[in-house]
Amino acid sequence: GEALEVNREVNCVIDFIHGCEDQLQKLKKQKEKGLLYGIPISIKDHINCKGHVSSGGMVKFLGQVKEEDSVIVQVLKHQGGIPFVKTNIPQTMINYDCSNLIFGQTLNPLNPQRSPGGSSGGEGALIAGGGSILGIGSDVAGSIRLPSSFCGLCGLKPTANRISPAGCSDRPFVLAVAGMLGPMARDVDSLALCMKALLCQEMFQLDPTVPPIPFDEQVRLRGAP
């Protein structure tokens, strides 16, 4: 409901992920409760989700429905998280605004005269507007950091290959800097919880190219003021 409200004002959601309710019912029956149990999670357009399109803001990709979940979506679900919406991006994602010819312009909920930043702009707008408490964006040259800054949020671009990018429809750009998936939220604790949940055995098994190093709580707390 909240996501719909925010979307009406700032145009940040491009798709609702069907099957969320079924997933919640299934989770309730499980004995093991994951670290993200019952948390609705928004995900950026290019993160593949079974039965949905990853358009990259480009018309040519609209007919290509994905047949399976990306590794990150599988891991979020394994940890009890519920991916519930996909969010808007600028066309091709190489931009720090957030508009494309399919879904239009996303606005900044703090000031609709301004951009939410990009390329994870739909995530920034939805979380800042109160429509999501945790989102997954991606960052090559600021695509998590810029919208987090523009929208007054916390965001993390992890070290390259820390989180599996497998099953994301990144466009075939040749870049010297590795693009990374990472969490966006309203506070640092939420980012830490998300990273802790993602860096689990399930991810290391689904993608053996990811170094099997769990989240280090001690290092995080040592860095705290």
UniProtKB/TrEMBL annotation:
Q: Where do the Amidase domain residues begin and end?
A: 5-212
Q: Which PROSITE patterns match?
A: AMIDASES
Record's Pfam families? Amidase
Offer one example of a GO biological process linked to this entry: fatty acid catabolic process
InterPro entries from the UniProt entry = Amidase_CS, Amidase_dom, AS_sf, Endocannabinoid_amidase
Give GO MF terms, alphabetically: amidase activity; fatty acid amide hydrolase activity
* Alphabetical keyword list: Hydrolase
The record's similarity note reads: Belongs to the amidase family.
The name this protein carries in UniProt is VDHAP protein
Q: Which organism is it from?
A: Regulus satrapa (Golden-crowned kinglet)
